[in-house]
Each structure stands twice: as C-alpha cells, then as structure tokens.
Amino acid sequence: EDKVVQSPLSLVVHEGDTVTLNCSYEVTNFRSLLWYKQEKKAPTFLFMLTSSGIEKKSGRLSSILDKKELFSILNITATQTGDSAIYLCAVASRNFNKFYFGSGTKLNVKP
Amino acid sequence: GAVVSQHPSWVICKSGTSVKIECRSLDFQATTMFWYRQFPKQSLMLMATSNEGSKATYEQGVEKDKFLINHASLTLSTLTVTSAHPEDSSFYICSARSGGSPSSEQFFGPGTRLTVL
User: Which of A75, A65, A58 is nearest to A11 (CA)?
Assistant: First the structure.
C-alpha cells in the first residue's frame, strides 16, 4: 500500500531554534516529493524534490531527498513565530496525476 | 503567484440535499484540477483528477455517482456532493495545475467546509 509518513506529528519550539521535519514514503511510480506549508486553509508550495542528494534552499528553509532510503527532511533554521503552521509532505506518482499526502507536522514556534 | 478560489467557503445543508462547490483558477488556465478532502487532523486525500473537457478520474473508493465532477472550462471545475449525508461532512480542497508539463506546480484553493446535518 502506498503511503507517506511524517514525523513528528507536532513540535513546539522557541524562536531561534532549528527544526528538522521528517517524511518517509513508500510509493510506486515515484516522480517527486513536495513540501507544503498549510497555515489556515490552502497549502502553499515550498519545494519539489526529484533528484537524490541535491539540497534545495529558500531563505531559512532547506530540504533534501534520499531516494535510496525513501525519505526527505525539511530544515528550518532560526525559526520565527510566522513559521508556525502545518507542514505537509506529498509524493507525486503516476506522472504527477496522483498525490499522496502525509498527515503533516504541526509546528508551533513560541516567542 | 497564481490564485485559485473556491465557492462557497463554507456550507451547511440538510441530509439528502445536493451541494455544489466551485473551483476557479483566477489568473491562469488550468488544464488539470484535483479535488481533495481532508478530515480533522488527517492528511489530504485525493478524490479525483479532472481534465478540461474529459471525464474525471476517480480514486479507488470514491463513488463517482455521489461526487460529480465537471470541468467544463479551463478556469472552472465543480464538485457536486449528491444526496449528502453527515459522513460527507469534511473540508474539500481543490487544486489547479497550469502549464502543459505534468510537473507544473499545483495551486490550492482555500477550501470549502461542508457540514451535513
């Protein structure tokens, strides 16, 4: 059965901390792994990872994919209260016509 | 960035009635739209994929006669929940993909909260 598992389910940190969010997957016909940030309603796109070992970076956020071990991590450095959200990991398969989502990691950054 | 809207944002209906949810891409043409449902504290579950002008592709376990999807134009897809029951109460989110490449980014709508009494 295809599945995407995220850990931890929730995380509470203080401003300035660095966090690492995990996503492991077992999906046939893997195409890419995507990270989204969901604050109140609509998820917003963060990264799409297709190749193993190549880090993608955007400001304080970075992510990398390991296709051999079937996982990805999302790092957030120097966290801010505005980073508080649910972070979703999704895997695209079937030529991007099927997406499997993890249950998300709820991040709470306290001042 | 590209904007996707949904209407209504929330709806309450009686059991047995039908509800239509609209998903619009406001500033781009969406060749493919996806419909998801999300239960509290659970992940997004893909219900169906719709391509403009053709029949939707439903995921296993999703009743196509109950969840009618129409993608009549490049900017509009609708999801109709027919004969709604309380167990259909959920958060329904659509996403739209622009561009001809399957790996083009998909943009999510704000979602519709459906409550069936």
Answer: A75
> Given a cut of 80, is residue A102 above it in pLDDT?
yes
Predicted local distance difference test score (pLDDT) of residue B1: 63
Q: Which residue of B has its CA nearest to A89?
A: B43
- Cis geometry, peptide bond prior to residue A43 (ω within 30 degrees of 0): no
Contacts of A80 (CB under 8 A, 6+ apart): A15, A60, A109
Of A38, A42, A39, A47, whose CA–CA distance to A91 is shortest? Answer: A47
Measuring CA to CA, which residue among B68, B70, B112 is closest to residue B90?
A: B112
Question: Token pair for residue A58?
Answer: 């955007």
In chain B, residues with a C-beta closer than 8 Å to the C-beta of A45 are: 105-107
Alpha carbon of residue A55 to chain centroid = 13
The per-residue pLDDT for range A51-78, each reduced to its tens digit, is 999 999 999 999 999 999 999 999 999 9
